[in-house]
């Protein structure tokens, strides 16, 4: 099966996030000046413009904000997967991430908005990065 | 300059053309743009050399306004290369109004050409590809197998969760636009040429029983993928007096963007910002609008935008679209009377057709003509509703 599109570098804004995935750490930053969460990762704070921030490890627990079960995708990495779920997940630390919901018997029936989920790492061939996915808690 | 009623009378649509075919061979997007430009100028009774302002989304390839000026053979005084996806034409019309009102231009031209079908572009289900240089957003989003339709489905799913909206309610939008398409010979031919399995009137049941593509959106919640194009000529009040057709005035406009944040309510679109600006400038209320042309990439796009523009309260769109309200013959707010992207024409960026059909209605030329239509709204949505998108609102009036 063809491989999924994976993050590509150099891309300095998101590189620290993806580096941490190799150690199975899901990371996010907070702004040192205004205190807001900065995510997706970028060098400046979209709330106040400051470039002083601190990175943290997430506990990997969150809630499904919305999802869809994809029945058709012509991309070679996904076309033979069968139905799979994509979702926005709200992590307890206050950031929202796009990812897949895995670990369910039937994604068309077993996923609900508001459902609690837990981080599950999916290592990629070559060990370049690991992908943070989520399964029912 | 204002009319007695206070509506501005600075710039008007005076020429329109919709390229008639949805399935083409041996013609390029640039050629479609040039042919459409000539036809729209003929419709206005203007000469090729009258154009002094050009607006281009880069759909013909090249560098937008830079390339297209040379291809057409003009040296315009205004070159605007606004490209924000399917709503580019509402943004461009807004900019043309501004530029004409400022005295920078007299005759503005917007063109569109696309061969998405001929090139077999799987717009809705092609999946994300890692093209171009690495980007922050691409790095965070491209690994999950997102499709365009799934992006809209995220909004539909959340809308159903928050407000109890149903698939049957969403289906009403497909049913109404198909009803209009059946009266539009270009749309009927389009559905035949593109090989639609069922080219007749639709029922709610037909839509909800059609194949699920990305839950909760079905095949018949989705627009077609066609070839096509068109052009719009916008003239100053002075130039409009010399046009063959009655002016369709641009009386208000607004533009906005929305994108994912850590706490955004994705059931609310950019329309909740662009709409009030446009209505405020026009000095009219949503309940005064006679006809609405709203970008129907998917049924959920229309439902969300109807609410965001204030045609009903947030969350009540499902009930609002029921009972034939969107039909030209029985409804109080006829929608997409050409058949829309769902059933007439969607080559990828159909915002120009919203302006064209709004102008047809206010001229009395629609195939689903609403009697005495005086005020129209066109709202384009570009990009993706569930993540980053642009919203452009234009309000139009006849004398």
What does this structure look like?
The complex is a heterodimer of chains A (137) and B (399). Chain A has 137 residues and is mainly β. Chain A is 5% helix and 37% strand. Chain A contains 1 helix and 8 strands; from the N terminus they run H-E-E-E-E-E-E-E-E. Chain A has a 5-stranded antiparallel β-sheet, with no helix packed on it. A 3-stranded antiparallel β-sheet of chain A has the order 2-1-3, covered by helices on one side. Chain A is globular. The two termini of chain A are 29 Å apart. The model of chain A has no long low-confidence stretch (mean pLDDT 95). With 399 residues, chain B is of the alpha/beta class. Chain B has one domain (3-120, 224-397): Thiolase/Chalcone synthase (Peroxisomal Thiolase, Chain A, domain 1), CATH 3.40.47.10. Chain B has helices at 29-44, 65-72, 88-101, 136-141, 148-163, 167-181, 185-193, 204-208, 237-240, 271-282, 299-308, 317-320, 340-343, 351-363; strands at 11-18, 53-55, 78-80, 107-114, 212-214, 217-218, 228-236, 248-258, 291-294, 375-383, 389-398. Chain B has a 9-stranded mixed β-sheet with strand order 3-2-4-7-1-8-11-10-9, sandwiched between helices. In chain B, strands 5-6 form a two-stranded antiparallel ribbon. In chain B, helix 6 (167-181) crosses helix 11 (299-308). Classes of the chains: A mainly beta (137), B alpha/beta (399). Chain A binds chain B through residues 4-11, 13-14, 17-18, 37, 39-42, 46, 65-75, 77-78, 81, 84, 86-88, 90, 94-100, 108, 113-114, 131, and chain B through 122, 125-130, 134-147, 150, 153-155, 157-158, 161, 211-217, 260-263, 266, 386.
């Amino acid at each position: 099966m063809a491989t999924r599109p994976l993050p590509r570098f150099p891309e300095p804004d998101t590189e620290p996030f993806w580096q941490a995935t190799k150690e199975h750490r899901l990371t996010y930053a907070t702004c040192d000046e205004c205190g807001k969460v900065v995510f997706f990762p970028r060098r400046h704070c979209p709330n106040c413009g400051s470039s002083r921030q601190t990175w943290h490890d997430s506990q990997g627990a969150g809630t499904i904000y919305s999802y869809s079960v994809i029945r058709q995708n012509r991309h070679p990495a996904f076309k033979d997967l069968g139905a799979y779920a994509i979702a926005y997940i709200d992590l307890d630390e206050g950031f929202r991430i796009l990812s897949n919901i895995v670990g369910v018997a039937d994604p068309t029936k077993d996923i609900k908005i508001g459902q609690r989920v837990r981080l599950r790492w999916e290592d990629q061939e070559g060990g370049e990065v690991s992908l943070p996915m989520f399964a029912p808690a | 300059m204002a009319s007695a009623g206070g509506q501005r009378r600075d710039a008007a649509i005076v020429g329109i053309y919709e390229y008639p075919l949805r399935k083409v061979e041996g013609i390029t997007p640039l050629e479609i743009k040039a042919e459409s430009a000539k036809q729209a100028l003929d419709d206005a009774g203007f000469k090729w050399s009258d154009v002094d302002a050009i607006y281009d989304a880069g759909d013909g390839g090249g560098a937008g306004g830079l390339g297209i000026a040379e291809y057409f053979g003009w040296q315009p005084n205004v070159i605007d290369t606004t490209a924000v996806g399917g709503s580019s034409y509402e943004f461009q019309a807004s900019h043309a109004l501004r530029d004409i009102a400022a005295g920078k231009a007299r005759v503005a031209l917007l063109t569109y050409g696309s061969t998405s079908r001929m090139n077999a572009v799987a717009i809705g289900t092609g999946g994300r590809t890692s093209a171009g240089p690495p980007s922050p957003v691409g790095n965070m989003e491209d690994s999950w197998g997102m499709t365009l339709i799934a992006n809209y489905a995220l909004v539909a799913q959340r809308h159903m969760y928050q407000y109890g909206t149903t698939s049957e309610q969403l289906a009403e939008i497909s049913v109404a636009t198909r009803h209009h398409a059946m009266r539009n010979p270009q749309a009927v031919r389009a559905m035949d040429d593109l090989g639609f399995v069922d080219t007749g009137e639709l029922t709610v049941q037909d839509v909800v029983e059609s194949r699920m593509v990305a839950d909760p959106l079905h095949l018949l919640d989705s627009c077609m993928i066609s070839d096509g194009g068109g052009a719009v000529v916008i003239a100053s009040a002075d130039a409009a007096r010399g046009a063959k057709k009655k002016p369709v005035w641009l009386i208000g406009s607004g533009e906005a963007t929305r994108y994912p944040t850590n706490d955004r309510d994705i059931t609310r679109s950019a329309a909740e910002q662009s709409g009030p600006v446009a209505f405020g400038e026009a000095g009219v209320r949503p309940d005064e609008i006679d006809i609405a042309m709203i970008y129907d990439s998917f049924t959920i796009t229309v439902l969300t935008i109807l609410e965001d523009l204030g045609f009903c309260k947030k969350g009540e769109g499902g009930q609002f679209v029921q009972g034939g309200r969107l039909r030209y013959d029985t409804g109080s707010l006829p929608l997409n009377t050409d058949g829309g992207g769902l059933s007439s024409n969607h080559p990828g960026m159909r915002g120009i057709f919203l302006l064209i059909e709004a102008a047809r209605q206010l001229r009395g030329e629609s195939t689903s003509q609403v009697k005495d239509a005086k005020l129209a709204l066109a709202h384009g949505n570009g990009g993706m509703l569930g993540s980053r998108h642009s919203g452009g609102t234009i309000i139009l009036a006849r004398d």
